[in-house]
Specification:
alpha/beta; Rossmann fold; two-stranded antiparallel ribbon; 11 strands; globular
Length: about 300
């Protein structure tokens, strides 16, 4: 049989395998993609194919964190990224990125919407209107131009309420073809909406995470799914690892009220619990969240 695969024992293959591992170790400290958050990258051993579940209460910053992580990963590794959103519009997601890149308050950027924001903030003006723009718009436009080379890798998709996992998979396949890249990082915000609306969140959680984990395996891609914690009362972060088995990584965001007292309002201190991690460490990481700028800073 001409197409027979030659059998080789593990002992015979060991030298080549060790040489390959040595080459990889010589070029990178972690095996996956850098997130732009140094402590998170080390704890996770980078972003690799699999399902990452990000859980947190409303308004704690889950969407901003997921968008920042997507942007930073795409920027560092020149890989396409796609953000599927059930609640946020493309415009609102763009404003978050603009605020983070420029250091301008989201409210100030929104006031510029009268000038019809055109693809990441470059305003379209009627003739003679340029004098009406505040100086901050020049700062905004400079930030856009500096980031344009990697912003061209990012795609934002607004999802109808009846969107299915199969439709998301088809969109990812189309993006792979368009971008000419098999490697893509995917975020699915408010992923609980992929389940039947007549079921409780607890009932939806195992089914949706199983479907998304299978999606990540089939495509060989990292998928970051954002899930809301809407239950009254406080659920211990570690309890989430017992509630759902499918994700490769479970991250739980919580407010740190004591540390928040040291920050200026409305800035918030956030603890990110890594409660499950098949490929690396568990533990807690500290962040400062600046809502006006949709920005997370990792605390040393």
């Amino acid at each position: 049989m001409s197409n027979r695969v030659e059998l080789q024992s593990e002992g015979a293959a060991l030298d080549a395998a060790l040489a390959e591992l040595e080459r990889e170790r010589a070029t990178q400290e972690i095996s996956g993609w850098e997130t732009g958050f140094a402590h998170l990258s080390r704890a996770l051993d980078g972003i690799r194919p699999g399902l990452y579940l990000l859980i947190g209460a409303p308004a704690i910053g889950k969407t901003s964190f997921a968008r920042q992580l997507l942007d930073q990963t795409a920027m560092r590794h020149r890989v396409p990224g796609v953000f599927f959103s059930f609640a946020e519009t493309q415009k609102e997601l763009r404003i978050r990125t603009l605020a983070r890149l420029s250091g301008l308050d989201q409210r100030e950027i929104r006031r510029g919407s009268a000038y019809l924001l055109h693809w990441y903030g470059v305003p379209r003006l009627a003739a003679g209107d340029s004098a009406d723009l505040p100086p901050s718009w020049e700062k905004l436009k400079r930030s856009v131009e500096e980031a344009r080379n990697w912003l061209e890798l990012i795609y934002l998709m607004e999802c109808p309420s009846d969107t299915t996992v199969k439709e998301i998979e088809a969109q990812i396949a189309a993006l792979r073809a368009r971008a000419g890249s098999e490697q893509i990082i995917t975020v699915i915000d408010d992923c609980q909406r992929l389940g039947p609306a007549d079921q409780t969140l607890d009932a939806r959680l195992p089914r949706i995470t199983e479907e998304l984990q299978q999606l990540a395996v089939r495509l060989g891609l990292p998928v970051l799914a954002v899930w809301p914690h809407l239950e009254s009362g406080k659920t211990a972060a570690q309890a989430w690892s017992e509630k759902v088995a499918n994700p490769d990584v479970i991250l739980v965001m919580e407010s740190d009220s004591e540390r928040s007292k040291k920050l200026t309002e409305p800035n918030q201190a956030i603890t990110l619990h890594i409660v499950k991690n098949r490929g690396g460490e568990k533990g807690r990481l500290a962040y400062n969240f600046f809502p006006s700028f949709a920005r997370f800073d990792e605390v040393p």
